[in-house]
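Quick one:
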Amino acid sequence: MGEKAAKQTSTPELHSLDQERLLTPSELARFLSVRPGTIYSWISRGVDIPHVKIEGTVRFREEAIQAWLLEREQARKKRNFEL
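Output:
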């Protein structure tokens, strides 16, 4: 029993980042069929598009964008139903 257990140092939840895709503004623009400038405009105007700023660059989590699109679609359907 003279051997001590080695301490494990790991960053919690860091491994999940490997599985999450981050889109560039150009990739997101292609996906949404808009110009990259439109994406930057949305961010600067405060449109609620989910994004992450990293050292002056902007990235978009693919899953967050999918959820954002679904939320907007459902809100539009709800508004149309209430009219």
